Amino acid sequence: MALLLLQLVVLGAALVAAALVLISIVAFITASKMPALHQHEEEKFFLNAKGQKETLPSIWDSPTKQLSVIVPSYNEEKRLPVMMDEALGYLEKRQKYGSDKVRVITLVKNRGKGGAIRMGIFSSRGEKILMADADGATKFPDVEKLEKGLKDLQPWPNQMAIACGSRAHLEKESIAQRSYFRTLLMYGFHFLVWFLCVKGIRDTQCGFKLFTREAASRTFSSLHIERWAFDVELLYIAQFFKIPIAEIAVNWTEIEGSKLVPFWSWLQMGKDLLFIRLRYLTGAWRLEQTRKMN
Predict the structure, then answer these.
(1) What is the pTM of this model?
(2) Which residues form the Glycosyltransferase 2-like domain (predicted)?
């Protein structure tokens, strides 16, 4: 009996090892190259208040503003106006910034949320760059908390630092409102993030993150994932380059209209997490110095 159990254990371990080898091979073979840092001709301009075309700046130019805010938007006609009203109202009250102009960058093709944010990052003017979701789930004045989080990380190595908004403090409340199945999916996703990619950050998916200009340039220039799991790879890259990261609790309210379908979206993100780890581990993806956009 003991011999039979030992044989089963050995067989199981061999099958698991074979499966990991097979998955690693698939991850390596199917690894796409880093998306080209390329703008279509139409994406190099924005329309000013007079309806005239103006050339967009580059993140590799010297900053001309203290803060840029990047808001990715796809079919957000209902939620975006409310968020923009709150953001602009807040910025106009802060003499430190002022709202200046809203610049709309229309992408020729759908690049995914991560790809859209990256295009906005590469056209930003700010010394600091905030990414925020179009649903307005995080109250915009909480940017002050992120600013303090960045300040507390000083001195910044090579002027690089990141402050991540976090909903981890709301976990107990969210569990009480979720089904057991969704709670299980949430814990499973958090475990995979911790085990495969990012240590020390409890909430990688909050869409409210503040970067120094140098940190945004370094991380987004190295990004491969353009869909929903891009946040995890972004923080994986930041930790690889030893960029200091602060996780800051923010106010957050769930807003109806999410495009994520819990089971299938989390299943896709789970696969992306595994492939992120395997592709870096096998050398299919490599982290290099910052690239400039062509």
Answers:
(1) 0.84
(2) 87-217
